[in-house]
Structure formats: structure tokens, C-alpha cells
Amino acid sequence: MALSRLELIAILGLSALILRALPQLFLVGKKFPEIWDRFLRYLSYALLCGLISITLFMSGARFEAQVAPFRGIALAVTIAVAYKTKSAVTGMLVGTVLVLVASWLRL
Amino acid sequence: MSFAARVGQGMKAAIPVWIAFVPSSMAWGIAAQAHGLTLDEIILMSAWVYSGPAQFAVLMPLAEGKSATTVLIAGFLMNLRFLPMSTALAPFFRGVKRLPLLLASHVVSASSFIVPYLQFQREREASAGCWVADGYGNLGFFLGVGATSFFVWVAGAAAGFGIALGFPSGFEEALKFILPGYFAGLLVAEMKGWTIPLICLASIVTAIPGAMFNPSWGWLASAALIAILAWSFEQWRSRA
Q1: N or C: where does chain B have the smaller number of CB atoms within 10 Å of the terminal CB?
Q2: Residue where a domain terminates, one of B174, B201, B228
Q3: Residue B231: closest CA among A76, A3, A106, A43
Q4: What is the domain range of residue B169?
Q5: For residue A36, what is the nearest residue in chain B, using CA coordinates?
């Protein structure tokens, strides 16, 4: 399927709107089953974490062995700081500074 | 209370959501610029898709020109969580005509869902059994939260693009870390119990062999498999 970026964005937005609007228009008074709600929550957590992993450690089908340790440490520090401070922004800032310093040191 | 007053009430309640949206939308704008998206594409995607996780999910496949099916499936799976959110809100908009509902539903997001939902629940509990949904009033409150948060999101993404342009070379590595770092922090800050951390850890680890096996589908399939396994195990345990 060869679609331009704009066409892809248009289809993505349309699918998001359908998922948002469907219950408002046709499922008033219905209850979403708790077990499916739980499954969708697990699915979104798993997808986000898989995405974080491939964004940081993969380039296509290739594992970025040279930078993965630095990014892995930065991710671990981000997680630890966010957990401790309960602030995603603080965690992200500390992790970003670490990644930046590591990239400068490697040059 | 009038519709306008309810919109104002919603706007006041939305202030924490705006504050949360500023860093996340800017992080997305910065990452999108670093991945080569134009300002038009960033604004269009922020306004039309309006879903942080889905925008994050499709950013890399979109920038790398991967198959359209991968981009669409990744975005669709991420957006599936709108179904339960929208279903939970629907009873509070009883009596509202379909067109306003259709337009308003565009601004349903994780953050703009939870604030009105909790407010409507509180109002229902406070009515001591004689609750009747004030559909248009509730819609006003919802729009006060949702529509203003939507504008903050779109403006933040555009601002992120501008900020990323201002960075000198040598910052690319940091720019690409911002969005995954922010989402990792967000997930951890919200975690309770052991199930979700285990799902996250397993997904992070298995995504790598998954992507090596198939760069387009591998990580999606491994993440879906982890979610199915965790959910099935929990169902089996609750029955046992």
C-alpha cells in the first residue's frame, strides 16, 4: 500500500475519530466490559514499552550495540528519577542530559 | 448552571491537564522535527490524530517510510483505549444531539477523559439517588476541559518544532531521547502493583528480538503477545 504521509495522517485521524465517536453515538447506556478494559490497558502499556525499546535500541532490524548501553543507562536513570520524584518531566530531563553528555563523550 | 458557566468550570478544572500537556506536546514536536516531519505535518497530526501515544507509535515508521499498514495498525492499536473512555462518558451526555456529540468526541483523550469523568461521578454521588444527567451541561464541562487541552496540545507541538529548530548540531541524540524518555517517566510515575511493571519489562526486552525478526511487525506482535499472556494469566488466576 503506497500512501503519502498526509494520506496516512488523514486515515489515522479518521480511525481515531471513529473509535472516539462510536460509543458516544451508538453505545449510550452500555457498559464496556471490565475485562476488555483491562486488556486494552495492558495492550497500550505493552505497545508503549515496545516502542520505547525499539526507538532507543534498534535501527531497522539492527541492534545499535554501540549506543545501546548509554541509552539503556539513561533510560534506567529516567525511570528511577521519575519513580522517586513522581515526575515524568524531571525523569526525562535527567535522562536527556545523560544521553547528551554520553554522546559528547563518545565524539 | 448555564452551558457557558459549565464550560468555564471545565476550563478551571483543566489547568492541571494544560500543565501536563505542555511538556508532552513539546516533546512530541521536538521528536517529530528530529525525525524529519514538517511543521504542517506536525500540526495536522496533532490536531487530527490528537493522541500522544499513537503519534509516538507512528512517528518512527512514518519517518522511515515503512509500510502504510504498519503505521495504521500501530496507531489503531494504540487508539483502541479510546473505546472504554468514550463508553464511560456516554451516559453523562444523555439527550445531546448526535452532531455535537460527534464533534466533541474528537477531543477525548486520556487526560481530558479522567477530569470530566471524575467530576460527573462526584456530581452523581452528591445528588443522593435523584441524579438525572444534564447532557448539555456535562458536554459544556467536557468541552471546557477537552477543547482547551486540545489547543494547548497543538500549540505545544508547534512550539516544540520551533524549539528543535533552534538546537545546534550535536544535540540530535538528546532530541531523539526526549519522547521515549518522557513516556517511560510517565508510565513509571503512574504504576501501581506488579502486573504493569512486569508487562513493561517483558515488552522492552522482547521488542528487540521481535524487531530483529521483522522490523515492521516484530515489536507490535511481541507487545500484543505479552499483553495477551498477562491478561490470560490474570483471568486464569482470578478463576482459580
Answers
A1: C
A2: B174
A3: A43
A4: 3-174
A5: B84
